[in-house]
Amino acid sequence: MEKKMKKMIIGIVLLSLFMLGAEKAAWAGEIDVLVNRLVQKGILTPAEAQIVVDETKIQVSKDLAQGKSLSVPEWTQRIKWGGDIRYRTQGDWGKGNSPQNTATPPSIQEQRLRNRIRGRFYMEGKVNDFTYGGVRLAGGSSGARSTNDTVGGGAATTSYFQKYPVMFDQYYMRFEAPSDIVREYGQYFSDMKLWAGRFNIPFEYSELVWDSDINPGGVAFQYVSPDIKTKYTPDTNIYGNFGMFWLDELGNINTDPILFGFQVGAKTDTFGPLGTILNVSTAFYNFSNMKDKTSVGSANTNTRWWAGDDVTYNRGAYRYGYNVFDLLVNIDNTKIMDFDFPHGFYGDFIYNPEAPNENKGALVGAYIGKKKLKVPGDWKARAEWRYIERDSVPDFMPDSDFYGFGTWATTTNVALNNGNNGIPAEGGTNGKGINIAAECQILKNTVLSLEYYWMKPIKSWDKTQPWNEFQCDVITKF
């Protein structure tokens, strides 16, 4: 009888604690006081009291995660939010093409030092059992490959303490398999997602093909299979990604530039003496209706038709189409000889058969340290080599921090960018070089990052000297 009474009292305590909710102040106040009083009266032992508190915390955390807490407004449990702030000091030096350089072609030695800020804030809400909606705000210009604001700016609207513009860089709906379908058919539908709007890049990728700041607009589909188990191979998941993204809407579906992306890959669970995870994928990116079109955000390093004279040096439309094949390999190891020592290797190879030559690109890299930094003291160092020929990929796609090299044409009625003197261009093609970086989480949710780029043209008439870039970032997330 006494045990039954005690169980009943414990049940009442659990219900009371649950009703009080997950507010941190309540845990420090009413909840602890209530449990301590029950211990003082001999109803609960100290051990039983600790079990009650621990189990209640676990239950409340689960209820909050599932949107079932009685003490917190229901709508708040369906919304998650966060953001990040980055402060960057950046130095660039080499042969430049700034507006202050009036030589024809530009030939000065340029050195630049600037401070840049990036701020982003996102919210995502669960609309129903299988629908989510999200938005993200970011600063920077309307360009696709940067959300940086340069301190002091260069325009009247951003210099002398003028405020910076803010815009939506993401707004999307995401549909996932509802729980009743998952229960009925198992996990075959559990990792299936359909996106519509502007959202993160839905592919496995490297910065040889995609700048990480690009948020493509259109629709995308992602799927990951259940574990595939065999006697001779590690557990493996097969995944597939598809996307259809408008590049320019010209009023005719037959002529609109549209990017179609298809990707299939396989990723293993941990296996072998090094604790290896292998991820291999191949993708095909069809930039339809790009040939004979012009683009916004181009670095002007792809081969173009001539569209001017020897005075204005105008660049015309793209001379070639772009159907890019992409082979991506990632090898992540967690140890060496039973010692915890994360490290890995990765590579990317691209090929565009639409261009007759200068149509390949490659990236090879390695890292040591934690692949993702989570707690103070985590660190990572990496080094990579990049090689991206002139027409291997459209010049509005690659990493904007890695410079390609354009041209200064000197003859009429010819295709532009067939060598010439190699003017540096942010995020372009016709470039090769190295990228070295180190990062460390110095405080909770705060990272210090150092990064250096050394780049030079693959083809140029005057063998222009390399372009250099150094970045020092402090990034904090909330």
Overall CATH class of the largest domain: Mainly Beta
CATH superfamily of the largest domain: Porin
Percent helix, as a range, is: 10-25%
The chain-level structural class is: mainly beta
Our measurement of the CA-to-CA distance between the termini, rounded to an integer number of angstroms, reads 51 Å
Number of helices: 4
Mean pLDDT: 83
Tally of distinct domains:
2
Ranges where pLDDT stays below 50 over 5 or more residues in a row are 19-29, 97-102
Query: How many whole angstroms does the radius of gyration measure?
Result: 28 Å
Molecular shape:
globular
CATH architecture assignment of the largest domain: Beta Barrel
Order of helices and strands: HHHEEEEEHEEEEEEEEEEEEEEEE
Percent of residues in beta strands: 35-45%
Q: Which fold name is given in CATH as the topology of the largest domain?
A: Porin
For the largest sheet, list the strands in their spatial order: 1-2-3-5-6-7-8-9-10-13-14-15-16-19-20-21
Tell me about the largest β-sheet.
16 strands, antiparallel, barrel
Query: How many beta strands in the DSSP annotation?
Result: 21
